[in-house]
Amino acid sequence: MKPDLLYTNSDHETLLSVAHNAISHGLTKGVPAAVELGAYSKPLQGEAASFVTLKYAGSLRGCIGTLQAVRPLVADVNENAYSAAFRDPRFLPLSHGELSGLHISISILSSPEPIDFVSEQDLLGQLRAGIDGLILEEGYQRGTFLPAVWESLPDPRVFLRQLKIKAGLHPDYWSSTLRIHRYQTELIDRE
């Protein structure tokens, strides 16, 4: 299955620029830059969900996003870039000195689709390493891993265990009420 969202290289460069500007503006003004929708291509004006991941000196520095399309993609990237830099509760707000060495990547999410399974083994057999991002839900607890997380957790069993932990569950937790959705991403990453 391919992601249902495809963007041009020009759109990719524009989104990376929007993310960088949101962070730069945030450093000087304390808020993300305003987004004038009419200044962007029609695809970037369409609603889409995204995650913005920040790395500094090769280490994660922030990652914030949305799982459902609720606003225009360009506005989603703008807000998520600002939030990844200044609102990720795992990190202190980004400093001026970190901006020049900051690596920004953007993941545009396809629409999440439920996975039907009868057991944990059945679920594990359906996971596609390196392709699927997962959303795990149990009651009010929820966690997600982007497909890029497969790079550091390539074993499906370990991937799922760590996702359970991220959602606030025990790594061995299992229930017939557990819900799993999969999605793919279009990754925008300037090397």
What does this structure look like?
This protein has 2 domains: 9-110, Hypothetical protein ph0010, domain 1 (Glycoprotein, Type 4 Pilin), CATH 3.30.700.20; 113-186, Hypothetical protein ph0010, domain 2 (Dna Ligase, domain 1). Helices cover 30% and strands 24% of the residues. It is built from 5 helices and 8 strands. The chain has helices spanning 9-29, 42-45, 73-86, 120-126, 156-166, and strands at residues 49-56, 59-65, 102-109, 113-114, 133-138, 141-145, 179-183, 185-189. The strands form 2 sheets. A 4-stranded antiparallel β-sheet has the order 2-1-3-8, with helices on one face. α1 crosses α3 (73-86). The longest helix is centred in the first third of the chain and has 21 residues, at 9-29. It is globular.
Class derived from helix and strand content: alpha+beta
Helix content: 25-40%
Number of helices: 5
- Low-pLDDT segments, ≥5 res: none
Overall pLDDT level: 94
Portion in beta strands = 15-25%
Distance between the termini: 26 Å
How many domains? The number is: 2
Strands of the widest sheet, in order across it, are 2-1-3-8
| CATH class term of the largest domain | Alpha Beta
Using the 3D structure, state the CATH architecture of the largest domain: 2-Layer Sandwich
The count of strands amounts to: 8
**CATH T-level topology of the largest domain:** Glycoprotein, Type 4 Pilin
